[in-house]
């Protein structure tokens, strides 16, 4: 016979949840349930159900303290100039974008109510009404136009100036409607404007020290390179948000020190924990680890326009020599997902899951090295701590080469100056690429014939034409098909080897709730302060 409760209603569930919030003990709760006619087993079931409901129900109030890993006296509240995670976190708390990416990588509306275009070249943006800046000013079309045009002004020094350059015309149709014209069709414009740099600021803003935005929090303190404190925007246009009363953000560069600050209760959240520092968390009660994989990767780059990469068989051999499973297990300590030598990660809706990674096959690698006439020759491979885990990856690949008589001379160089002196320049070297929201941005930056960061000097007229075709199409199914084909071309033809997509691990108090993955990066795409709550 099943235990059940007679005359138990939703109001009774609410009574139990309220009692839990007040701190009632399990003994007290069971007494309450028994008095209401519940058997012991049924009472335990109700308690479990109530506890789960509370864990998923946001609670208002509390002061949230978090620590990132990087800071500088150049920290800024100007979204256009944001360059570090600390900048992104602060800007996300103070400002809003026209659009944002949800946990599934789908573009959602934020300050924009709608984004419409018939040809992917001229876009009409309808703005939400009733949105105000922290100083009380209403959001208008002029604010949006000013915010976007700033990126085209060289004196501003926008970090996304090249991406913004495609926007060639702006028009305020009325107070709540903006028309944006592009140089060429681009169906990704709504997604591009979800990047952190495209936050909307008030028309005419030149002083960003006050952080005057439309966002969930209002600035109280900002000490560049040290800390910031923001408090709840009581006039926020998103009903019920934020849940927190305040949010303090600091930077602690040392991993162990960041974890120790969490364990001692000085902070609630420690971002981007090194695998070695994860051991400090261990099985300690009251703390958790959160793992997200959003598209960051370290790649081995072989320049196709220089020896030995000019020999196609050397590149083919290296792709078979990379043991992707061992790299994830050893170099990344399990914190990664196997990659298939192309930059669009599983976090992206356009990821080609049918494209399988090259299998580790030393015999095939040896065959290709012999065919290239390079077996036994010493090949320099440049690695540095500047490119995450590249030294550990290089050692794994070097050992596999030694087993078949391929001599890979791993040269470890300092982090200082690596990106200027070795990246994009050395014949065989490592890179490290952060997540980007669209395949088009990744391809334009890294694989188009004129790409500024073309790591392997890959050139393909067919690839370039496909990129332009996909960019201008509003047919999502067609775009997915084209992007899948382009990912296959990169995997098979380019000189970049992407063995894994690296996972980010944050450590947090168990009282922190609401944390989810986001394709724009860790800490919920750096926007966590608006969505998290602290369990009472």
UniProtKB/TrEMBL annotation:
It comes from the Bacteria. Coiled coil: none annotated. GO terms for cellular component: ATP-binding cassette (ABC) transporter complex; outer membrane-bounded periplasmic space. CDD domains: PBP2_NikA_DppA_OppA_like_17 (cd08503). Its main location: periplasm. InterPro entries: Peptide/Ni-bd, SBP_5, SBP_5_dom, TAT_signal. It holds the Pfam family SBP_bac_5. One of its GO terms (biological process) is peptide transport. Keywords: Signal, Transport. It is found in: Periplasm. One of its GO terms (molecular function) is peptide transmembrane transporter activity. Residues 109-451 form the Solute-binding protein family domain. Belongs to the bacterial solute-binding protein 5 family. PANTHER family: OLIGOPEPTIDE-BINDING PROTEIN APPA (PTHR30290:SF9), PERIPLASMIC BINDING COMPONENT OF ABC TRANSPORTER (PTHR30290). This is ABC transporter substrate-binding protein.
